[in-house]
């Protein structure tokens, strides 16, 4: 469907930046998940995330394999700069790009100890599309720095945040004399715990009015179709928004994700997103939301998937299936069980750590 600019607030760079995690978390720390913001990130971290290949920085594993990678090498540093490696069993030198972030490793380990596991994200995006890369009983739960690195590096969602061109895509042009706002990459470590997705909703606020609520997970849940349940959810979300968000959030237009407690009477904030076409409107279209916003007499609308055969239901479709596994991983998985694939993937990561990306000096 063709979009109409009237459906959205003016998309300025400052508007988009107001939704990065470090901007809103200090105001809503008591209403959301405990988190630690690491900013600035070390030199080389951004380049590492966007570099080719599947590998983790040197020293980031809690139980690293024995390696003599840097024995006899003339390394400039371990902070992400290029190093010259001399291989004892080779007749030529190679230029090898390698990364190591010892201070960041320590910060991550401190958070893991404090939170008993973390879930990482960058300024805006979380690596939910890369849940496949951690082979444990709790998807997306990181228990070592290497888990954090490989999860972020394998995610298309997260790497979107590394490029300001992507971040400000769709924004209006700067006014004459207006300076480009400063954008700095940040790493966020959130306390991990299992989220029951059937209690998560996305809420749309336009012109300081809460106009729409959509279930967040695109599966059919029978209990969400019950009238009393729907009424309870609407009342709880409305009460929370009016008492905790409405007068605290500075802007007029935004989208927030909200997780309800099991009794559906309370909840906490998961994230804030710009009121923009880049934010998934789920069971609404932005045209429908525009109509709700324009009609000042309209009531708050709560939409759920009414049946398992509804077109929006995705009970048999993997989440983020279109970008959840890179080609490198697909080539490794052929003909293998999950356990075998996990072991081969680990071996490939270790091999990439040792070999790097090399070019023969001429």
Task: Give structural notes.
The longest helix has 19 residues, at 227-245. A five-stranded mixed β-sheet has the order 9-8-6-7-10, sandwiched between helices. Strands 1-5-4 form a three-stranded antiparallel β-sheet. It has helices spanning 13-17, 21-28, 45-50, 102-115, 145-153, 156-159, 164-167, 227-245, 286-294, 327-333, 338-355, and strands spanning 35-38, 83-86, 93-96, 118-121, 187-191, 200-206, 209-215, 254-260, 267-273, 301-303, 358-360. The chain folds into two domains: 1-33 and 195-323, D-amino Acid Aminotransferase, Chain A, domain 1 (2-Layer Sandwich); 34-192 and 325-362, no CATH class. Helices cover 28% and strands 15% of the residues. The protein is α+β, with helices and mostly antiparallel strands. It is globular and about 60 Å long.
């Amino acid at each position: 469907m063709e979009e109409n600019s009237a459906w959205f607030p003016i998309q300025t760079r400052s508007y988009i930046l107001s939704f990065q995690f470090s901007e809103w978390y200090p105001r809503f720390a008591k209403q959301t998940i405990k988190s630690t913001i690491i900013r600035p990130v070390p030199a080389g971290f951004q380049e590492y995330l966007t570099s080719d290949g599947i590998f983790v920085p040197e020293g980031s594993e809690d139980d690293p394999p024995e390696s003599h990678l840097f024995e006899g090498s003339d390394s400039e540093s371990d902070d992400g700069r290029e190093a010259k490696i001399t291989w004892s069993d080779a007749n030529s030198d190679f230029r090898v790009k390698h990364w190591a972030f010892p201070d960041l490793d320590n910060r991550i380990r401190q958070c893991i100890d404090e939170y008993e596991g973390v879930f990482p994200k960058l300024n805006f995006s979380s690596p939910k599309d890369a849940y496949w890369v951690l082979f444990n009983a709790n998807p997306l739960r990181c228990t070592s720095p290497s888990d954090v690195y490989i999860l972020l590096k394998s995610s298309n969602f997260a790497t979107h945040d590394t490029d300001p061109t992507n971040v400000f895509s769709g924004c209006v042009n700067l006014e004459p004399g207006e300076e480009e706002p400063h954008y700095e990459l940040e790493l966020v470590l959130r306390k991990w715990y299992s989220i029951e997705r059937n209690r998560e909703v996305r809420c749309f606020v336009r012109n300081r009015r809460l106009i729409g609520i959509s279930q967040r997970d695109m599966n059919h849940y029978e209990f969400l179709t019950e009238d009393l349940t729907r009424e309870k959810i609407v009342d709880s979300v409305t009460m929370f928004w009016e008492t905790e968000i409405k007068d605290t959030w500075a802007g007029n237009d935004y989208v927030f994700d909200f997780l309800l407690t099991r009794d559906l009477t309370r909840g906490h904030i998961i994230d804030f997103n710009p009121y923009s076409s880049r934010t998934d409107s789920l069971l609404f279209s932005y045209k429908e939301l525009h109509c709700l916003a324009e009609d000042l007499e309209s009531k708050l609308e709560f939409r759920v998937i009414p049946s398992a055969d509804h077109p929006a239901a995705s009970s048999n479709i993997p989440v983020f299936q279109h970008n959840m596994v890179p080609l490198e991983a697909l080539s490794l998985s052929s003909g293998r069980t999950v356990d075998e694939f996990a072991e081969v993937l680990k071996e490939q990561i270790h091999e990439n750590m040792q070999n790097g990306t090399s070019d023969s000096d001429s």
